[in-house]
Specification:
The protein has a two-stranded antiparallel sheet. 74% of the residues lie in helices and 1% in strands. By secondary structure, the chain is an all-alpha fold. The longest helix is centred in the C-terminal third of the chain and has 33 residues. It is globular and about 65 Å long. Helix 9 packs antiparallel against helix 12 and helix 13 packs parallel to helix 16.
Length: 498
């Protein structure tokens, strides 16, 4: 771990200083393109941060080659040189696009050329991690690898529209992938924890950590297409090297890790950028435009349109990336049902975070509704937190991991019931006095039904503690009933009708 840290630190320092030098050069020679209609910044800002990242990448490779820990990785330096040459090519393509706006076919050609350099060096998806199933011929393997590299490059590039967005998402996702590769190496190679995937991930972390201080709002410089495509190229390359260097099929069941994690992790980490890419391509082609034609309808733009601030939209992306990355890593320690329970509870919080401006506007629609929403939200969040924290502590002391799982399930139930309460109040406020009470009562009938179904479904589950599960869920239900009763009885119902 120390070796990886040193490489990442050196890369970060070189990238930080190089970015400062690139900023000074851009200001000295006025290398700052005019503001475009889709841009969200207010003053011309240079978009050539990829140059600094390329210098940081070179420093990272050079420092790793100087350390004896990584000597086996450089015994055959061909793939390393291929990665660097491909990185240099994609930075040049990105710079040309940032400065003179290349035709989309030329840009795609450059991306495919960079991907081909890496694939032809031997870094390919030769076998899928499903019992060692081979992909097929060399040509098929080459084509799949090039497609994957180009896909991830464009996915990262498509989200580079807000200060700190792409750098932060890549940092969170790459950190999770680095932890995965390190833990997997410990399981498969107890005497040697060093891998090409781990080295690339450490260098990526150094690149984004060194660049992000310059790119945080208000950004002094943007990474541009050159930096975004470089990060995407390195992320995809790191994932592909895992499938070739460490066979996940050899991991024992005690690792609690699905065999598809090497491919699933980078895909799910970039789920929002990939979704944004897919929607953008479909949207532009349906309008008869080039799939690379710029517009202002990306997901980060839509988050701003629903009310998020510039930094608020960035934090939403961070939240979802952290949610997916952490959930996938939990497979190292927890069983599938436990992971799904944690993911479900966390997903509710992420959804609330994502749509909070819209919910807030609905809350402000009427003053009384605002008070009811805020009161119900605070109390339900407090209840869910108490059930999760206190229940986990007590459950672990008495029943071990099963008690913790039971308490987290109770917290998830509390969160779901809280959302149902808020929705009941929100829709009921539009229907007058009778409709208000009818929806709140109907919501509770639905909660009782869900409570009964949950007990019946999980009563025989082996990963939870029966008594602790019962007490956690009952506490959630009774607490939710008390909160609903308090909110409804203290509401100014005549004001709701107006």
């Amino acid at each position: 771990m120390r070796a990886y840290f040193l490489v990442a630190l050196i890369t970060a320092v070189v990238t930080y200083l190089s970015t400062w030098l690139v900023r000074y050069t851009a200001k000295r020679f006025n290398i700052a393109p005019a503001i475009r209609e889709r841009d969200v910044h207010k003053s011309p800002t240079p978009r050539i941060g990829g140059i600094a990242m390329l210098l940081g990448l070179g420093a990272g490779f050079f420092s790793a080659a100087s350390f004896g820990w990584f000597e086996p990785l450089f015994a055959n330096p061909g793939p390393i040189w291929a990665m660097f040459f491909a990185a240099a090519l994609i930075v040049v393509v990105g710079l040309l696009d940032d400065l003179i706006e290349l035709d989309w076919t030329a840009k795609m050609g450059g991306q495919m050329a960079a991907a081909w350099i890496i694939a032809s060096s031997g870094i390919q998806i030769v076998s899928l991690p499903i019992g060692g199933v081979t992909v097929g011929s060399f040509a098929v393997s080459l084509a799949i690898t090039v497609f994957a590299l180009v896909l991830v490059m464009n996915a990262v590039n498509f989200i580079d529209g807000l200060d700190g967005l792409a750098a932060g998402v890549v940092a969170i996702g790459t950190l999770a992938f680095f932890v995965y590769t390190y833990l997997l190496a410990q399981q498969t190679s107890p005497t040697n924890y060093f891998s090409t995937a781990g080295l690339i991930s450490a260098i990526i972390l150094g690149l984004v950590v060194g660049f992000l201080p310059h790119n945080w709002r208000p950004a002094k410089i943007f990474m541009g297409d050159s930096g975004a495509m470089l990060l995407g190229l390195l992320m995809a390359t790191s994932a592909i090297t895992v499938t070739g260097s460490i066979d996940p099929a050899t991991v024992t069941r005690n690792d609690l890790l699905p065999a598809l994690i090497p491919l699933a992790l980078p895909v799910f980490i970039l789920i929002l950028p990939l979704l944004d890419l897919l929607l953008a391509v479909v949207r532009r082609l349906s309008r008869g435009k080039s799939p690379f034609a710029p517009d202002r309808e990306h997901i980060h733009h839509q988050l701003q349109d629903i009310g998020h601030s510039h930094q608020g939209a960035v934090l939403v992306f961070y939240h979802w990336t952290l949610l997916v990355s952490t959930t996938l890593l939990l497979f190292f320690w927890l069983d599938l049902p436990q992971v799904l329970m944690i993911f479900g509870a966390w997903q509710i919080l992420a959804l609330v975070h994502t749509y909070w401006p819209a919910l807030a506007r609905r809350i402000r629609y009427r003053r009384n509704s605002k008070q009811l929403f805020a009161k119900a939200l605070r109390l339900n969040l407090l209840l869910a937190g108490l059930v999760a924290v206190l229940g986990s502590i007590i459950g672990f002391m008495v029943y071990g991991s099963g008690g913790v799982a039971s308490s987290l399930i109770g917290a998830a139930v509390s969160s779901v019931f809280g959302v149902m309460t808020i929705l009941s109040i929100g829709f009921g406020s539009k229907l007058g006095l009778n409709g208000f009470y009818a929806l709140v009562l109907g919501g509770w009938l639905l909660k009782v039904l869900l409570f009964a179904l949950l007990l019946g479904f999980l009563q025989s589950a082996t990963f939870i503690s029966g008594p602790m599960f019962f007490f956690a869920v009952v506490a959630s239900v009774l607490g939710g009933l008390a909160i609903d009763s308090y909110v409804v009885l203290t509401a100014k119902i005549p004001a709701v009708e107006n």
